Each structure stands twice: as C-alpha cells, then as structure tokens.
Amino acid sequence: MSRYENQPVGELAKQLTAGLLRLRKGYIDAAEALARVLQPNLEYPYEFVVYRLTGYRPPRSRPVLPLGGEGLRRDLGRLILDLSDSFDLRAADYDEYAYDTAALARHFRVAVKTIRRWRRRGLIARKLVFEDGKKRIGFLESSVRAFADRRRRAMLRSVRFSQMSDQERADVIRRARRMVSRTGCCLHEVSKRLAARTGRAVETIRYTIRNHDREDPRAAVFPDHDAPLDLRAREVIYRCFLHGVSATALAARFRRGRGSIYRIINEMRARSLRERTIDYVYNPQFDLPGAEEMILGGGDGEAHGEAGPDAGKTPRRPPRVPADLPPYLRSLYEVPLLSREQERRLFRSYNYLKHRADRLRRRLDLNRVRSARLRKIERLLVQADAVKNRIIRSNLRLVVSIAKKHLGGPQTLLELVSDGNLALMRAVEKFDYARGFKFSTYASWAIMKNYARSVPRQRYRFDRLVTGSEETLELAAGMGDYDPHASTLLELRDSLDVVLAQLSRRERSIIVRHFGLHDGGKSQTLEELSRSLGISKERVRQIERKAMQKLRTMLRPVQADLMR
Fold it and tell me: CATH 1.20.120.1810 in the chain, residues?
C-alpha cells in the first residue's frame, strides 16, 4: 500500500481494496474523474470524496479536516494504482488504447525518465494486464489527453528536447567545452548557464552533454564524470562538507553535479553510521506494538528535563554543600536528584532510543541511501545523548562524595572526580533498569570498583617512580596499556591495598610477602615462606591460589555483585 499524504484517503483505499472485486474498476474510473476536476488551491470535504468514488454518504462519526486539492489529487493517483494492483485489470477492459511506459515514450519521442516525471506531475497511471499477459504501468489515451490539456507547456518543453538539431547539439558541446576550459565549472553549472543562454531546459543541456560523452569518450567534455570516485576521494568530500565547505564548491572542485556531491555525502554518513557501535540494554518491551507511544509518548518530557510524574510532589530540601569544595564542584549540588520512577523512565527512554537507532542503522543500504532515514537515525542518537546527559548530571555529586573518600594519594580531587565521571558514564551504558535496582546503588559500586583499580595503580606508579629504579620506570610506563578486563597478577597487585583486608590472616601474609608488598619490598619464594610458616611448599601454593581466586572474585564487574 502506497504512502498517502492524507490519512483518511489511505484508510479509504484499504477499504476499497478489500471490497467487492466487481466494483473496483468503477472506483478507479470515479477516482480519475474526480482528480481531473480538482482545483489545487481549494479544499474538499472527506465525505464529498467518498460520495464521488462510491455513491455512498458516510455518517459523520468523527470530524475530518478538509483535504487540500493538490495533495488530494496525488492521493487519488496513489489510490488508483493500489486498486488496479489488487486485481487483474486488463487493458482490453477499456474501449480506448492503453500505452505502457515504453510505448508512451516512443509516441512522444521522449525518454522513459520523462514519462516518470510526468507521472509525478499528475499523469494518471494504472496497473494493467497487457496482451502479453504481463501486468505493468499503463496509461489510457484519455488520461494522457487530459494531462496534455492541463500541462501542455511542460509537455511541449519535454517533447522539444528530442527535436534539437545536430547543429544545435554541436553548438552546445562546443560552448560547454569552452566554458569548462575557461572556468572549470561542473556539469550542473555548465548546464544551468547554457540553458539560460539557449532557452533550453537544464535537463536538455545536461542530457546532451552526457550523451555526447558516452558516445565519444575520447572527445568527452567531462572525461572523468562517469568514473566513480574512490573511497579516499569520497572521504575527503565528506570531511570538507563537515568543515563547512559548500556542496557547490565541492562540485566545482571534483567536477561533479551538486546532486552527485549530496549522494556521496549521504553515502559517507550512512557508512559512518553502519560502522558505529551502538550499545544498549535490550528489553522485550521495545518490540511490543505501540512501544514508541508507550515509552516516548508519555515520558518524552522526562527525557528532555521537563516535568514528570514527580512534578507535583513536595520538593526535597536543598542538599548541604561541603564548604571545602571548589566552585565548579559546588555547582553540581544545584542539580536535583532523580527519584526511582524518574530513573526508570529515563533509562527506558535512553535504551529504547538507541534500540530504534540501531535497528534503522542495520537496515541502511549504501547503494540506496535515503537522507530522511539518516536524519531520523541521527535525531534518535541525539535524543539518547540528551537523556544520558541528564542522568549523568543528576549523579555527578555522587562521584564527588566517593572521590573525597579516596584522597590522600598522588591524585587531586579534580583528578579523582574526572576518573569517577568516566566510571559513571560506563555505568549508564551498562545499567539494566528492569532488574529493579536503583541506579545510584549500581553507580556507587561501579565508581568504587574503578577507584579500587585506579587509585592503587596510581599510588604504585608514584611510589615506584620516586625510587629511581630503571626497571620500575619501565614497568610503570608499560602500565599505561592497562586492560581492565584482564585478570593478570600485576593488575591484582595494583588493587591489593583495597581488598587485602578481606583475606584471612595467613592468606594476607603469604600474598604480601610473596609479592614484596611489605615495607622492605623484597619478595620471598614459596620455599622461604614454607620454612617460616612451618608448612609444606605445596600447601603454601594452595593457600596462595585460593587467595588469588578470592581477589579475582572481588574484582569482577559490579554487575555480578548486584546479581547475587
């Protein structure tokens, strides 16, 4: 079913398509008769349209806004196509000649593309079964005659296109070649200037030049116009456009039409979106019927910071701001905290917006890019970022309160807050609102876990760097490539001073002495530990393995902690 500009006409088309088969041809003929008499600057009642098509006056069950004449005419053309496609309407069913697209193009000596342009301008078409038994687009002779009477000037301009003499074509090519050599204009600009000087249509000039270049490539006016640009050139065009270079300037630089430049830009936008990773927490609600209205319809104000369901409640007392904070951090306490219901709505909207963007992104076709779909995907991602920013702003004071408890090492408060903000952003990406936890609890675990890794590492690097040991300097430099997902012994040593207290006394003693974490800094072998503790070397190894397993468990991602 085609997309209709007026929803009532689309609903009427569905009803007529599902109606009696013997009545559909009458509906089609009535729709064309109505389309011929419509005035584009007038409005028509919906009941009038139904009556003209079916002879039935519908009851006034609900008010329908009047339908504009121009949009109604286009919708009637769509209705005729949909109805004729719903059954086998034969060209022989009419007492007049019916053209298919190719036959009509030959009749007027124009290109098939011109016929398609006439259809967009109001030429009524049907789906007809021709003598060869195949169904295709067809045009009744009366429909063509009615369109010619209404759009005679446009038709004559198109027909005159093919009547250009050989001398005129040669003159167009000569002038185009001279213009390119002097100014370096692109095909679109050359066509536009020559059209103004010769009185021909821009499309006529463009087609003449392109046809000449195809037939005689050695003497082509634009020899490289049909050669596709490589990926590097397309990337340059896209980057230049992003930096403010106009499409007209890019068309002149690469000797392409502006339409070609815009197609390249859209292709690169689509390629960038296809390569982008969109992470979100999926929920089965996202694929339910009416999910968009349910999730965004009532909660869109929440997503943009407007009043939500908690707007009528008594506001909380202003938080007490610590006096020792710098002005930048003090301002964070002006942002109100989120209630549990607000968090749930915001996280649901955030993940749903990214879910929709990801679904649309996966369906992008680089060979047929639609700018409307690109804009929709980009708009969804911008809306998701706006929701994420509100969640982050409402929880920044949580980072400050946790960061203050980790002061005392080489990092300043602002450095700790910056580090904690990154952990907060990662927590927003991974939080599953459907589990029922409050985000502040989840974020607190994530931030403290991050500090459990980063603070000891920074302290270790600082302590080792001040010793002047070359070996330690190399080790500290190598720690810049730290992978938080790997459970190596070196990374576990970075976090031991935070979690060591949770080990048993003997486990802690073995770990500290074996890895040289005591004041002396000298590590002891398993054999030395076994003699000092009075146990076998194998037993020492077992205790150490058990202690290391405890440390790995404690350093797992915070999701595992919350799921227990």
Answer: 284-455
